Amino acid sequence: MYTIGQLAKRFNISRSTLLYYDSIDVLKPSKRSKSNYRLYSEEKYERLAKIVSYREAGLPLKDINKIINCDNKGTEVLRQHVEKLNRDIRKIRCQQLMIIKLIEDNGLLKRLGFKRKKKWIKMLKDVSISDELADNLHRKLELDYPEEHQSFLEYLGLTKGEIDKIRGYYNK
Fold first, then answer.
1. Neighbours of 49 (CB within 10 A)
2. What is the percent of the chain with per-residue pLDDT over 90, rounded to a whole number?
């Protein structure tokens, strides 16, 4: 049997989190000691391990309860969560592109001092824009805004040869 303190330490969660899980029936203690301390069995330990894993994956407690208590609904709940994450990712990527476009439109690039290709690459990676997304951004700029794409590449300080090579690649 495990005490609430042992579980909290083992799973690096607060004691109050375990008390909350008890209050909402996500993780009830197996029994109480003579001193009225909550005690958790090995089965409850394993249940908490699942709860912690699902929480780390970003699932809300109500969905975790469904997954753990109803095996037949678990896959559907997880599928729905992945769909939500994909929607959130698409929304964030659109926001990133909008911000870049706003910076360009407002002439903020020069004022911000992003004059070098390496700084831009670092900035894009810092905001988690993958190589694939950067590739899609170049393709979209080249196809829909070729003059702006040319200006952007010039602004980065690329040589005419580098610009021609990049634009040629995306004009295929």
1. 13
2. 27
- The Cα–Cα gap between 166 and 150 comes to 10
Chain centroid to CA 90: 11
Q: How far apart are CA 63 and CA 73, in angstroms?
A: 10
Whole-structure pTM value:
0.54
What letter represents residue 137's amino acid? Answer: L
Task: Report which of 155, 152, 133, 132 is spatially closest to residue 142, judged by C-alpha positions.
Answer: 152
Angle at 48 between CA 46 and CA 54, to 5 degrees: 110
**42: burial class by Cβ within 10 Å (0-12, 13-18, 19+)?**
exposed
Per-domain residue ranges of the chain: 2-59, 73-170
- Name the token pair of 150: 């040319």
Four-way CATH pick for 2-59: 3.40.50.300, 1.10.1660.10, 3.90.550.10, 3.40.190.150: 1.10.1660.10
How much is the pLDDT for 149? 82
> Who contacts 95 (Cβ-Cβ below 8 Å, separation ≥6)?
none
Q: What is the DSSP string of 97-141?
A: HHHHHHHHHTTHHHHHT--SHHHHHHHHHHTT--HHHHHHHHHHH
d(CA 78, CA 81): 5
